[in-house]
Specification:
By secondary structure, this protein is mainly β. It has one domain: Porin. It is about 10% helix and about 60% strand. It has an eight-stranded antiparallel β-barrel. The longest helix is centred in the N-terminal third of the chain and has 15 residues. It is elongated and about 50 Å long.
Length: about 140
Amino acid sequence: MTVRICLLGLAAVLVSRPALSDDSYPDLRGSWKGTVEAVSVDQGQPAPKPEFGSYTASFEITEQEDRRFAGQYTFEGGGPKWIVGIITDPGRFLWSEPGGIAMGTIEGADAISFCYLRSTEFDQIASCERYQRDN
């Protein structure tokens, strides 16, 4: 009898627990605009030194399949670059673009933030960025 009650209880828990589906990941598709705070060093200069700056940027996620997404990132003075990313759990993500990676937090349906790092033999950059959905 005790075994039967335990099995019925376990079955009830399994049936009532939502299945992990494609809908369990937030939909990041759309246009996003935000601000960037960055520090960089251009190694191609005769006397390299850190440069601190703030600027605006935007990106558009055009494709998403379950937790994987892709789109294009644009910043002041720079053309669009492809980004590809993955939601690592419901509140965090990683993305990659040519030469760099970003680690971020999904702060709500219409707000995200991330920090970005790139290091090459020619330059280094570190930034933290905040975005709001723009559609």
